[in-house]
Amino acid sequence: MFYTTATLKEESELNHLRNTELHVNSFRDQIRQIVISMNRSIDNIGLVIEKEKLLEKSIRDILFDNAYIRSISILNSNNKIIYSTNQKNLDHKLNVDEYYPKPLFSGEILRFGEFIKGRDLFQSDDLLTIVPLSKTIIKNSKKYTVVFAISNDYFINKFSNNIHKNTEELQIVRIDGKLLFSTHNDLQEKNSEVKTKLFKESIEKIASSGLEVIDDKKYISAYSLTDTFPLCISIKLDYEKVMKNWENKNRLALVFFFLLIISITAIIILLLFKYTKAKNKEIKYQKQLIKNQDKLRNAYIVYDNTNDGILITDENLSIIDVNHAFVLNTGYSKDEVYGHRPNMLKSNKHNSEFYKDMWESLNTNNFWNGEIINKNKKGELYTELLTINKVCDNEGKTKNYIGVFTNITNEKKQSILIKEKERFIFQQSKMAAMGEMLENIAHQWRQPLSIISTAATGIKMEKEFGTSKEAVEIERLTLINDSAQFLSQTIDDFRNFFKPDKEKEKFFIQEAVEQTLKIVSSKFRNRNIEIIQNIENIQVKVYKSELIQVIMNILNNARDVLEEKEINSRCVFIDISKQNNDVLIAIKDTGGGVKVELMNKIFDPYFTTKHQSQGTGIGLYMSEEIIRKHMKGSIKVENTQVQYNNKEYKGALFSIVIPLEN
Question: Most buried by CB count within 10 Å: which residue of 246, 319, 391, 435?
């Protein structure tokens, strides 16, 4: 029994180790692709580094596509910052010569600095860290150095959803042992030097894994070295936590075994047999999975340096050379394309204006970049991101044209699928809102319908008994008419909410709040929920009904929470104020706040803490989509303390920031 227990423990450790190896290989490939992308972005900056407008556009596009880049700076040959997206970095000197690795020959390689405490290169912040990444660019015999400041928080957050936060840690380490990134928030307290035996072994053998003890704590660790950059990726599992479940089961099995060993010996043997068979099947599957993973990795390394297709022509546009990736993407061999013109790939999907603009850019800037649809040897269409450079001699005469392309056909298809999914979720949101509106109509109409019924019945009975008085009858008919007008106005309010916005309009934000409260107020009154307003009447230009939908979603969420609370003051506070060129909408409640573990999921699609019959989980997701994409603003949630009637409450605070002019 003890031997079997020990064996099972070893197998459990081995399974965790193998899964960790697979996990670190996956992260290694993802991180490598991100670094390749940043390397390519720096190269693209180098192409336009002396063209101010093109440089600004290129940097703006890079920052837009890569939120984890805190800033981009350009240094001159004296390592002085002459350009930066963060003005606080300008005119400082940055010692990039100490970045790793130090080049032996050409300086045009990607190099990594040690992490810096602060929001940016020269902007201190004890709670944040960044890692600088640099590459030297030689342009027209001038030396420049491009530096990306990478935010540890943003960069690691890209991988957080695939990391078990309580038991697993992802680290990125330079091969000289300097710790650059960690998914744990205590990076600044950690020893920035990684000197473990497994780490050193991975430097020698590309990869290593096993059990190790760091600061008296035991880990199941796997290290994998990237083949292109001086980085080592590691995954560490907290041994005690991941093995705790196994230990609990083991103790229960021991008690069960000693109490029932005589009466159920045969059953135990049968169960052990089935368990061993299933375990062997699982191990066989894992071995096959690892074997397949090794084959894929080996194939990936073989083709590693040929991800982008390249073709070179002479000054007359005759192809003189292509690389292996070109052959793979087009299906044409080198011999088949030699001497031909690149228009042999033409798909006829672009008009003459497209090619006219391309040649105008080449003749003016010696450079063109964009998407193009071409046709391969089989006649199949594919989309590529193409960069063409015109190479000239010292006299300005054209010598060659060099085209570099990346096949983005799959990314285009994926983008279409994502857009279709977003349209589907938006339709679901509208249907959910319609159901909410119908329920609000019922609440709004209940009292006026009752008034109409009572007044009409009174008039009828007085007529039947001959006791009607003209003054009383006129009073009741007026009451009926007032109630009917209220119903008509309610219909207009709901119709205006569902009327699609064709264009953005200018309106005072007080109007949007009032229209929202007309729709939801009856439900709040019925639940004894007080709405307290502190609103500056600010004019904005956005889609009005979409803003109403966002405010209503947040109010309805607050209402659902407060309805469940047994507290004296059920309150929702709406504060709206102007901040520079933005408007801040703050909506908070006294409902107890949001659980910390749910804070990062609250804007995810289909995430809800309610029963299926009460919520779809798309209201707050659509609210974020509307604010972020349609209004170019931001929305966040946090917990806050609320003072009301000399008493303090805890509640959720939703903060919305949108530009005054959208």
Answer: 319
